[in-house]
Design goal:
single chain; 154 residues; alpha/beta; 3 strands; CFAP46; CFA46 protein
Length: 154
């Protein structure tokens, strides 16, 4: 929340989304947010694709969304239990499509211009540091996404 407030005025007054853990967005809300944005940020628990329906995503056309940032792959006891219960109803192929590289490919096929995503599990604190670095470089310094990713890799 602090990071969003810090950078709110630097890039847009049209922030829109769902913040917090009070309710999970419906598939219709995910669709509305993705199709009406130029950039999309997911900062949450487990795999992003475990939150959206695969059939729904692959049928989407979202070329207005130029950048998707996925700061996912964070695990807690509660999220692990949720994902474990969800995964037992999925095929191995379906679970494989939720991995970071496959998720980036699927988003790219729907028309997203660039995808920045974590590749392995980390903590909320580590992802907060990544978000701060992303916003500092993309919004304050005006670096390109490629330049910003190089900063993250260092």
């Amino acid at each position: 929340q602090k990071i969003l407030e810090k950078y709110h005025d630097r890039f847009t007054l049209q922030w829109e989304g769902v913040i917090g853990n009070m309710c999970a967005p419906s598939q219709a809300e995910w669709e509305r947010l993705l199709t009406n944005c130029s950039a999309f940020l997911f900062y949450g628990m487990e795999r992003f694709m475990s939150h959206v329906l695969l059939n729904w995503l692959v049928a989407m056309n979202i070329p207005k969304c130029r950048l998707v940032i996925l700061l996912d792959l964070v695990r807690s006891q509660q999220s692990y239990q949720r994902i474990t219960n969800s995964d037992i109803h999925k095929s191995c192929l379906r679970i494989a499509l939720e991995r970071p590289t496959e998720t980036a490919m699927l988003l790219s096929l729907t028309g997203v211009g660039s995808v920045i995503a974590t590749q392995w599990y980390s903590s909320l604190e580590e992802n907060a540091e990544r978000l701060e670095t992303l916003f500092e470089n993309l919004l304050s310094s005006g670096k390109t996404t490629g330049q910003t990713v190089h900063v993250l890799q260092k």
